[in-house]
Amino acid sequence: MSDQFATPEITSDDKLWAALGYPIPLIPIIVLLMEDKKNRPFIRYHAVQSLVFNVALWIIVFVLSLVTLGIGAICAPVAWLVTLWPAYEAYQGKYMELPVITNFIKNQKWV
Fold it and tell me: Over the stretch 27-50, which tens digit does the pLDDT of each residue have?
């Protein structure tokens, strides 16, 4: 994981939208539908990354629930807590990289 320094063009509004996208999966969808927000590189980067992160996380929880016959559903609150770490980093104004997810979205040229 490499962090870039916060640049002056990142506003507190950008940081808030980026951070809210991780624990609330509906936010990145809304951001990507808003023209003024999706044109901001910091918000777009975190919106796409948080959307892919949440999809991957909930697929893992779903598969774990199927394999363990529902016992894995207990992991759902813990999985939600995992989203708070990248949200905190986004709120600090960092372009944090999630190991597999960031490489995937960059290879797909989504950011």
Answer: 999 999 999 998 999 999 999 999
